[in-house]
User: Fold this.
Amino acid sequence: MSSTELDVVGVGNAIVDVLTRTDDEFLARHGLIKGAMRLIDEREAQSLYEAMAPGLETSGGSAANTMAGVASLGGRPAYIGRVKQDQLGEIFCHDLQALGVHLAVPASTIGPATARSLILVTPDAQRTMNTYLGACVDLGPEDIDEALVRRGKITYLEGYLWDRPRAKQAFLRAAQVAAAAGRQVALSLSDSFCVDRHRDSFLELVKEHVDILFANEAEVKSLYQTDSFESAAQQARAHTSLAVLTRGPRGSVLLSGSEHVEIAAEPLERLVDTTGAGDLYAAGVLFGMTHGYSLAESGRRGAIAAAEVISHYGARPEAQLAELTQRTLHPPAL
Amino acid sequence: MSSTELDVVGVGNAIVDVLTRTDDEFLARHGLIKGAMRLIDEREAQSLYEAMAPGLETSGGSAANTMAGVASLGGRPAYIGRVKQDQLGEIFCHDLQALGVHLAVPASTIGPATARSLILVTPDAQRTMNTYLGACVDLGPEDIDEALVRRGKITYLEGYLWDRPRAKQAFLRAAQVAAAAGRQVALSLSDSFCVDRHRDSFLELVKEHVDILFANEAEVKSLYQTDSFESAAQQARAHTSLAVLTRGPRGSVLLSGSEHVEIAAEPLERLVDTTGAGDLYAAGVLFGMTHGYSLAESGRRGAIAAAEVISHYGARPEAQLAELTQRTLHPPAL
Assistant:
């Protein structure tokens, strides 16, 4: 590959999603908290899978979904993660490569299988994730392709990496390399339970290393331990150069210095599955920010991408987002 | 498992589908015949997969889809096939077991991987299948669980098995065991190109061993080498105790002795992907015939099941067919 500049380099847990429709009763019976992401071990992954209805397998992983979105919008993303050299690993790599995402995904030949997340979608379109990290536990600082990171205008890191010590080191290595190269570092907080597990270190990270913060309302409130969205938003603004905060159907807010932009949620024909909503919102903003768009224009692209992904089953766009965005923002004259 | 009677024992190629949306131009560029099933080797599977857009993986296989349908309708099916002990094999077995299909699926520890079919769905909802048989090539007569076959009221065999000599032996073994036990033998012709490859032996098989024949219009015309559906239908009627012939949007015909029943296609809200249409039509008829329903009632169940599966992406029902059938046949009074 040439040394052309990249828009975004995503680093994350490389995961294949196993999606199944279920009901609240199933969640209750298995003690699962609706809407949350929970880490499970291999034994539990097996017993939960046995109890689940037939599934549908698609590539997932938070930062990987975001890179898929950036590619679909017409951008130039790259992805760093870890799979095993197995069938799910092959599927994961194929699906990103087919979209034109540049991959730096080492495949282990030994050790645990490619990660999978058992995702239960309830009739209210909420997703409850049960993730077996598998080969992701092998991701370490040595997997960070420094030359690749230097080529990205923005390095985008998912908070989920913070759950494993070596992935955390990989995360910090990527952030340091990006900062040293004068590039921006973006962080997605991933999940309010994840924030809860790592609040102090996330807070330190945001203050010291993060230029662009992505969080939803629950996550940013948990980070700053406040019930007030306004208060959390002001603190996030003070600690970063851009805070991008999503509020589901209430839209989103982008805060940068003295700028404050509110974006309405896109109108939806039908809400099917919220998996990937935050990931695709981030894709729209990252694409916008790396293509010279304003905060408002970038946020609108995020809203359009998020609306597309929640209108169908699965965490990656089915539509060509570049075309969908064009059609939505510039409808043909009658 | 107890020795309770089973409704249907399906024997077929155990395959995981990789579904991708594409366009006519892609088919043309790769020399693919729309609507057909083509066998490909590992090398071609790899190069075609590399050229394909991101996919969605779901369990498939013609007879397996039919057994999934019988289970969803509330019946008691079993399935005999062969996978490798790998991730796709595990997914295949999980998906049937989760529906309550009794499995007799030996998993090879060596040899080729679990079979996959690269299915290209064009905007007209037609599917073009490219199947790498993988572990299915190991299916042989020794895999036929004879006690299981004797327990099934009907043994259902897919024509695709005829493509491999040892699978053909397995097919014949199953048919002989079923016949010797006073059970019925059903055959699905699978694909008009498959009929073309094996016309003479299919014809002999139908005349000598098959009680119930499932075919679509193109397949039955190819079998009897005639352009006249009427002529082909009359020959199929003479050679079997029941001929079940589907004609896509023109509905279906069931012929048995002097009985002749025409079933209209169910009205459709939207046609998305025809993958599995014939398999699910067969499921409705097999369920009906093993539950004391008339030809007309059985055919109607086939039409309802087929309409469900073509209204979404993928070859297996998403709805609970027992409930859907009940709701369609007996709508609540206003």
Q: What stands out?
A: Residues 207 and 327 of chain B are 39 Å apart (CA to CA). Residues 6-15+62-111+137-329 of chain B form a domain with the UDP-N-acetylmuramoyl-L-alanine:D-glutamate ligase fold (CATH 3.40.1190.20). Chain B touches chain A through 26 residues (CB under 8 Å). Chain B has a mean pLDDT of 96.
